[in-house]
Design the sequence.
């Protein structure tokens, strides 16, 4: 005889990882199934309606089925009790007459009379095969009068002590007991009644099997249950059909709306019938037609406007060139004129410069609107770009009493950008800061990390009011219309700068607060085509004072109307920016 192999540590060490792997697989499958069911529940209105209908109808039908089955069982039991009680009373009266002649329990014929009475009462069953057991006992005369039953069997296990005591006290009592008398376990209705005699009291018991009542109740419960299940399934099918009639047009409308939003303006719903759903489809189609008409109209107007702007800009080039040549000639000879005419020549030259810049900006805006703007990216060191912008605006800054301060790395900052567009953005930002600097320093900061490069332009002028940070990039918008321009700008610089930043896949954001100045931040990806997630420089300057105590490094907050005009607060000097800031810009 060979013994079973022992569980060695090697076997245990190999079994446990397999069990853990199997548990992980089962847990993963369970989670996937649960996630699928949850997703189906969230997305399908029909599934939710059918499930709720099935659950509620199951509860209602189950409750009614239980009440009906319980009522049927009680009625059958009441009928059985009424029948047995009637037979018990008749049997008790008959037995009392039979035993009336006996005055002593020791009389010889008493036992025979008891047996005959039991047989008679048992033979009085009209069905003969009902299985009713009749018994006469004498608890007060144990050992003198023997218990007699018909048919002969031991009924003591089915007659409890409590029932015996109640009948011995002269009461009619009953119980429902389950026991084994004729081979199989059966539930009996046991009724007992006292039988008065001249020498004392005997006890008469009827034991009636409840097989027929239980079978009838079981059939009734099965019928009610089958009917309930069929009704629940029918309700579920009905709910599915009704929900499908309602959900299908809604789904068609949703798909049609998605196609419309994707630009397929000719999509329409099929109108079938004259009911409410048909009215919904007809109204949806009418709405889609009106939207298509308005969109086409707006597109045509926008196209005409862009074409008009482009054509006007081009057509103005020729007369502008002629006027420029005459103005240059007059400007060159201004020293020979009297002072008033010389001043007029200078003003004419300045306004022609501004007019030429306006035409250039209008042409650039028309290219952006038409989608023809192209990005010419190349690896560029942004440090000399920042220095070049500061040098070109140094003369203007000196005239208005503003100093330009630079905070740039000493090492090259290389990024794949279009240097012409980046320089134009910085020139617009710095020129705007100098114009609104209120004779206070303007700080230009350059920062870089692994994925992005950022430039902030900070001024300490009047700042921005709450909500104005959303408007500064609008075309021809001015915070103070009565304020005279120092730089002779066109009002399109920030709009063009925003488009240049978007063309790079970058961000151009603004922050400002009354009396604390403003700061603009340009963030561009280091590699062209990469998606930005963070900015190396914070949008809100560290010296800004906010109503709730000022920004803290690492915070990511949004400023409400009480906090000044800020699109977002960047999370520290080297962390990300608020998504809402990018959406608004």
Sequence:
């Amino acid at each position: 005889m060979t013994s079973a192999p022992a569980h060695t540590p090697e076997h245990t060490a190999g079994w446990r990882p397999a069990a853990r792997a199997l548990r992980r697989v089962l847990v993963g499958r369970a989670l996937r199934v649960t996630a699928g069911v949850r997703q189906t529940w969230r997305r399908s209105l029909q599934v939710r309606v059918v499930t709720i209908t099935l659950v509620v109808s199951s509860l209602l039908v189950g409750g009614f089925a239980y009440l009906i089955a319980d009522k049927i069982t009680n009625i059958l039991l009441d009928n059985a009790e009424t029948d047995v009680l009637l037979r018990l009373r008749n049997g008790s009266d008959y037995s009392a007459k039979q035993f009336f002649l006996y005055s002593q329990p020791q009389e010889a014929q008493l036992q025979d009379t008891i047996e005959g009475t039991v047989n008679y009462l048992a033979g009085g069953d009209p069905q003969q095969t009902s299985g009713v057991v009749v018994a006469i006992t004498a608890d007060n005369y144990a050992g003198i009068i023997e218990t007699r039953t018909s048919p002969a069997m031991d009924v003591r296990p089915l007659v409890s002590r409590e029932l015996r005591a109640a009948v011995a006290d002269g009461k009619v009592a009953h119980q429902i007991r389950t026991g084994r008398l004729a081979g199989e376990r059966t539930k009996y209705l046991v009724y007992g009644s006292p039988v008065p005699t001249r020498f004392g009291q005997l006890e008469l018991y009827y034991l009636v099997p409840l097989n027929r009542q239980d079978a009838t109740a079981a059939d009734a419960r099965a019928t009610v249950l089958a009917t309930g299940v069929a009704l629940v399934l029918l309700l579920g099918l009905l709910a599915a059909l009704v929900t499908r009639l309602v959900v299908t047009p809604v789904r068609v409308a949703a798909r049609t709306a998605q196609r419309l939003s994707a630009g397929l303006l000719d999509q329409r719903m099929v109108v079938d019938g004259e009911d409410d759903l048909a009215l919904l489809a007809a109204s949806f189609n009418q709405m889609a037609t009106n939207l298509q008409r308005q969109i086409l109209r707006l597109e045509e107007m926008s196209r005409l406007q862009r074409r008009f702007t482009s054509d006007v800009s081009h057509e103005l080039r020729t007369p502008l060139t002629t006027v420029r040549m005459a103005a240059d000639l007059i400007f060159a000879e201004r020293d020979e004129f009297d002072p008033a005419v010389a001043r007029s020549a200078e003003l004419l030259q300045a306004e022609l410069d501004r007019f030429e810049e306006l035409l250039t900006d209008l042409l650039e805006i028309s290219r952006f609107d038409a989608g023809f703007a192209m990005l010419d990216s190349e690896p560029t060191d942004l440090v000399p770009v920042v220095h070049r912008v500061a040098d070109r605006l140094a003369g203007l800054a000196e005239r208005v009493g503003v100093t330009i301060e630079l905070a740039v790395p000493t090492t090259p900052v290389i990024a794949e950008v279009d240097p012409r567009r980046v320089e134009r953005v910085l020139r617009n930002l710095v020129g705007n800061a100098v114009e609104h600097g209120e004779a206070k320093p303007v700080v230009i900061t350059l920062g870089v990390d692994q994925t992005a490069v950022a430039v902030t332009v900070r001024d300490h002028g009047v700042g921005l009011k709450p909500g104005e940070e959303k408007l500064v990039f609008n075309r021809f918008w001015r915070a103070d219309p009565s304020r005279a321009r120092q730089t002779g700008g066109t009002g399109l610089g920030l709009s063009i700068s925003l488009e240049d930043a978007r063309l790079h896949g970058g961000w151009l954001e603004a922050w400002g607060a009354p009396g604390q100045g403003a700061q603009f931040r340009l963030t561009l990806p280091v590699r062209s085509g990469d998606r930005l997630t963070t900015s190396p420089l914070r949008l809100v300057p560290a010296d800004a004072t906010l109503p709730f105590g000022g920004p803290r490094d690492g915070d990511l907050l949004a400023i409400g109307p009480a906090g000044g005009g800020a699109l977002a607060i960047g999370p520290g000097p080297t962390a990300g920016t608020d998504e809402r800031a990018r959406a608004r810009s």
